[in-house]
UniProtKB/TrEMBL annotation:
<dbReference type="InterPro" id="IPR002575">
    <property type="entry name" value="Aminoglycoside_PTrfase"/>
</dbReference>
<dbReference type="InterPro" id="IPR052077">
    <property type="entry name" value="CcrZ_PhaseVar_Mediator"/>
</dbReference>
<protein>
    <submittedName>
        <fullName>Thiamine kinase</fullName>
    </submittedName>
</protein>
<dbReference type="Pfam" id="PF01636">
    <property type="entry name" value="APH"/>
</dbReference>
<feature type="domain" description="Aminoglycoside phosphotransferase">
    <location>
        <begin position="15"/>
        <end position="223"/>
    </location>
</feature>
<dbReference type="InterPro" id="IPR011009">
    <property type="entry name" value="Kinase-like_dom_sf"/>
</dbReference>
<dbReference type="GO" id="GO:0016301">
    <property type="term" value="F:kinase activity"/>
</dbReference>
<keyword id="KW-0418">Kinase</keyword>
<keyword id="KW-0808">Transferase</keyword>
Length: 263
């Protein structure tokens, strides 16, 4: 990012594992800069899902840098994830035809359940794969693969934990960090929100705010995708030697299996 230093900008790295995001300041103006962001960002900005895109530039290194309005704010709390606002923004994302069209234009295909299962099975280390809770979850996944019409797939975020929700000081709500975006069953986003943040007695109300009926089929799909995501996180934390976090996700995985054992 030497190019921006030369132009008089002050750059401070912010968040994320990629190390490619910066808070840029010059003469009181603040921007959020990111290297090699997906072209999908423009569509997200146009839909008001992320802070507004100001410009996109290709610099001397050949890298593409995007600039968005800098928004002062905070991530959502666990309690706020059960709010009507979260449900409504999630529905807006899942219902967006422009977002779906953009992902299809850049060559993305639906991530169907069998593909997800194959992907997770091939990624597990011997240690994780041998854990009895993980084995129970894998067996469930193999036996209960959802039968999904690809035409029902929508744009999904894939990592909707509270850290990726930004509430600005102007009370604007955004969902950020779209590196894992996919075309998939919307239950992949809905399920992890409900199992992680929403009390069981409040599921019907949250789903009503989202605009969908709480059916047995939906619940089975939510459970299936939540197990997939939990196993993915267990493997990620083992890879990074963060064993306390890994064990927390194993406990969560066991909770999901046991809570809906008859679904």
């Amino acid at each position: 990012m030497e190019h921006f230093y030369q132009l008089g900008w002050t750059l401070d790295p912010v968040g994320g594992a990629s190390g490619e995001a910066y808070k840029a300041e010059q003469d009181g103006r603040k921007l959020f800069l990111k290297r090699n962001a997906s072209p999908f960002l423009a569509a997200l900005s146009a839909e008001g899902i992320v802070p507004k895109l100001v410009w996109t530039k290709r610099i001397e290194t050949g890298e593409v840098v995007t600039a968005q309005h800098w928004k002062n704010g905070r991530e959502l709390t666990h309690e706020e994830m059960s709010s009507k606002r979260v449900a409504e923004l999630m529905k807006k994302i899942h219902s967006s035809r422009p977002l779906l069209t953009m992902l299809k234009k850049i060559g993305m295909k639906p991530m169907l359940p069998d593909l997800l299962l194959n992907k997770i099975q091939s990624s597990l280390s011997p240690k994780v794969n041998a854990h009895h809770t993980v084995r129970s979850a894998i067996q469930y996944l193999e036996n209960e693969i959802p039968k999904l019409d690809p035409s029902l797939c929508t744009v999904c975020h894939g990592d909707v934990n509270h850290n990726n929700w930004l509430l600005s000081d102007q009370d604007e709500l955004y969902l950020v960090d779209w590196e894992g975006a996919m075309i998939a069953d919307p239950a992949i986003d809905i399920g992890i929100i409900l199992y992680t943040y929403v009390k069981p007695g409040d599921w019907d109300g949250w789903l009503e705010s989202y605009g969908i009926e709480h059916t047995r089929d939906l619940r089975k799909r939510m459970k299936w995708y939540t197990l997939v995501q939990a196993i993915t996180m267990i493997q990620w934390y083992e890879d990074h030697k963060r064993f306390k976090d890994m064990n927390d996700w194993i406990l969560f995985l066991n909770h999901v299996i046991r809570r809906d054992r008859f679904i």
